[in-house]
């Protein structure tokens, strides 16, 4: 399966025993949409653990078989190259307390700790950071394109949390240093894999960057990596797409 957007890296945690070979019918689509919508009416903000419950519910209603144990196969979680690049840039500069406080202050002006942000609002926050930061004219196109690519892939699938927005903002500020940008970009390319980047690839990128830039922070553990990925919040469209791609693979 071609993992074309950030949400679809979760699809590798599912293995479907009965290959359908066709897209869902109109009735099946109605069932998927109504089930997902009902969950959103009951709970604002759906993360991966809750998606598993919704997935089981829909599969049972549609009478489609699947292997339950594969829902816990976290080891195969992967990120896109853009994701790893953004996270690594944020990691590098987050050890600077003054910068971290500056970012937290701006992000807090636009959202609370438990609120979510759209991709359009996130773009506004990044523009505000560029306006207030002392880096005029130094933001290279590559990080803007990297962020833009990721937002285009996730806009219909994903709702950005406070932590997400902070990471994007830190990465944006980090891009003001061309040397840091080049080091991070080269490290990501060196360890990139065609089917996405797992924890081992992510760890090697961070280790390379820590060694080159003499960053004092330790490499995030696998549990921290997993917790960050699995804490992401999904939109209605994102959950619908995940269920369809998993139960009705082409």
Q: Can you offer a commentary on this structure?
A:
The chain is an all-alpha fold and 250 residues long. It folds into 2 domains: 86 residues, no CATH class; 139 residues, no CATH class. The protein is built from 11 helices and 2 strands; from the N terminus they run H-H-H-H-H-H-E-H-H-H-H-E-H. It starts with 25 loop residues before the first helix and ends with a helix. The N terminus is likely disordered.
Please name the defining characteristics of this protein.
single chain; 250 residues; mainly alpha; two-stranded antiparallel ribbon; 60% helix
Find the structural class using helix and strand composition: mainly alpha
Helix-strand string: HHHHHHEHHHHEH
What is the assembly state of the chains in this entry?
A: single chain
- What is Rg? 19 Å
Strand residues, percent: under 5%
Biggest β-sheet: count, sense, barrel? Answer: 2 strands, antiparallel
Instruction: Provide the residue-averaged pLDDT.
Output: 75
**Low-confidence parts, pLDDT < 50 over ≥5 residues?**
1-20, 136-142
Tally of contiguous helical segments: 11
In total, the number of domains comes to 2
Distance between the termini: 8 Å
Percent range of helical residues: 55-70%
Shape: globular
Number of strands: 2
Strand order of the biggest β-sheet: 1-2
């Amino acid at each position: 399966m071609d993992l074309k957007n950030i949400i679809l890296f979760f699809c590798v945690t599912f293995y479907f025993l009965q290959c359908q070979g066709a897209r869902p019918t109109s009735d099946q689509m109605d069932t998927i949409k109504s089930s997902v919508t009902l969950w959103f009416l009951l709970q604002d903000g759906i993360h991966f653990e809750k998606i598993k419950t919704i997935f089981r519910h829909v599969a049972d209603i549609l009478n489609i078989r699947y292997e339950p144990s594969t829902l816990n196969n976290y080891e195969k979680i992967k990120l896109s190259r853009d994701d790893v690049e953004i996270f690594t840039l944020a990691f590098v500069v987050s050890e600077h307390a003054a910068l971290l406080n500056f970012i937290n202050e701006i992000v807090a002006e636009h959202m609370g700790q438990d609120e979510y942000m759209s991709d359009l609002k996130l773009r506004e926050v990044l523009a505000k950071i560029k306006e207030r930061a002392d880096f005029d004219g130094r933001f290279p196109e590559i990080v803007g394109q990297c962020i833009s690519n990721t937002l285009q892939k996730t806009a219909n699938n994903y709702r950005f949390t406070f932590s997400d927005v902070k990471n994007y903002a830190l990465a944006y500020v980090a891009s003001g240093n061309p040397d840091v940008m080049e080091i991070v970009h080269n490290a990501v390319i060196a360890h990139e894999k065609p089917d996405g980047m797992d924890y081992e690839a992510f760890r090697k990128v961070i280790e390379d960057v820590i060694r080159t830039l003499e960053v004092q922070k330790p490499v995030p553990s696998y549990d921290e990596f997993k917790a960050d990925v699995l804490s992401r919040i999904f939109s209605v469209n994102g959950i619908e797409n995940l269920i369809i791609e998993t139960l009705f693979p082409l």
